[in-house]
Model the fold of this input.
Amino acid sequence: MTEPLLHVDGLLKAFPGLTALDHVDLDVHSGEIVAIVGHNGSGKSTLMKILAGVYTADAGTVQTAPGTELHFIHQDLALVEQLSAAENLALRRGEGATGLAPYRTREVRERARELVSRFGPPFDVTCPLHRLTPAQRAVVAISRAMDGWTHSRNVLFLDEPTESLHRTEVDVLFEAVRRLAADGAGIVFVSHRLDEVRSLAHRIVGLRDGRKVADRPVTEMGESHLIEIVTGVEKMDAAERAAREHGELALQVRGLRGASVESLDLALRAGEIVGIAGTLGSGREAVPSLLYGATDATASEFTIDGAAYPHRSPAQSLKRGMAFAPADRGRLAVVRDMNARENFTLPHLPRTTPAFAPIPVGGERTEAATAFAEYDVRPARTEQRISLFSGGNQQKIVMAKSMHHRPKVLLLDEPTQGVDVGAKAAIYAAIERGAAGGTAVLVASSDAKELAALCDRVIVMRDGVVGAALSGDDLTERRLVAEAYGLP
Ligand SMILES: Nc1ncnc2c1ncn2[C@@H]1O[C@H](COP(=O)(O)OP(=O)(O)OP(=O)(O)O)[C@@H](O)[C@H]1O
Ligand SMILES: [Mg+2]
Done:
């Protein structure tokens, strides 16, 4: 074989009390698509961050072929939230850095529009990123990483790029990635979606607790071996849909309107799990946050437990027994400077603590430790800063927090985004336990398989309104996808 574009040898990285990477080797050749798989916290993002220069390795070497550049799409996207999509893209090309020279706004915008439109429906490239949906932000990050390639022998790294994308967007991205590889680039991507890994990768590299445990062509990697790498356990069945008795109306809304939702009527009963499906821009991605009052919405009727709830806000919603776990946990669901325990107890403080009284840390620690064990949070360190947990483990903590005090209405947006197969099963089980205990659960998800396995019924959004409602034998992954795209 020819010289690799990238040659990584014996990479070692330790964080206090833990070895994140333990002598990891990796070669990436021209034209090759390499998938990196491993459980939450196995070291995948750390590997990318070292190659990107975000972290410094404790030992090991990294060599690139002459002229080869490394481009990255990080798990947390690394975008500037206050700037628009156009400005974020311009930053990458150094176009903002012209000092007092006239800033070529029009050109920058048009170029941005063209770049993002390669990946899906157009959106406003001049609006600040914090107003875009997670999927739109992912599109910006992807456009940025693929912009400005001067030749074809670069290596592109993607750390869970498809987590907030819907099927068509994923297809477009993969098409682009395959094209780059065919032109001679090397591609390294991290994913927990094993079907995705199978369809895209030529070679699979498995990490487990920072160690490389597999490196072989995809054709030589059996399904059970792959699952064993990611979980360490035998294949798990999707959560069984239990036949549940549904109780009183927990939430009722008519004519809900806001963000990408034009109009939605919805009733949730205690003990019910209702899904929201749809492509990006269909309204699917906005429903939980509109219901929670995190995004402005109007409605002709809105009741919780039979009582009218006209002026909605997150604080009020929490008081009325609602809980919300947003998809974009890095920005919306965790307080980055607090430790894991503090994040876990945060929404419940007003209920458990009189003002100015010392917070009873001991009791909290035990509660948090119990919940962390239940959700298999790794490391199970309740006092560690939340931002130092891996992406999937942060998601487990957010889920544990949302479910902890048995909300009446639980609103979940992409609940298993970025979590490994083992944690997925734990989260599904917790959702089912919550429903069995009388919580009304709403799950918005781009994962049709997840919705089909978990929900009693699913509402499919199309162009901001309800396109279809599926339940019983009609509720299959295939039907969900067909309805989302309006296929016959
Ligand atoms: N800056 C840091 N300080 C301390 N520990 C860290 C830091 N960054 C990562 N870690 C730890 O290193 C380990 C590897 O984390 P990493 O983010 O690489 O995992 P990952 O494989 O990307 O997981 P995921 O699939 O959940 O994103 C984890 O145990 C994580 O908690
Ligand atoms: Mg990661």
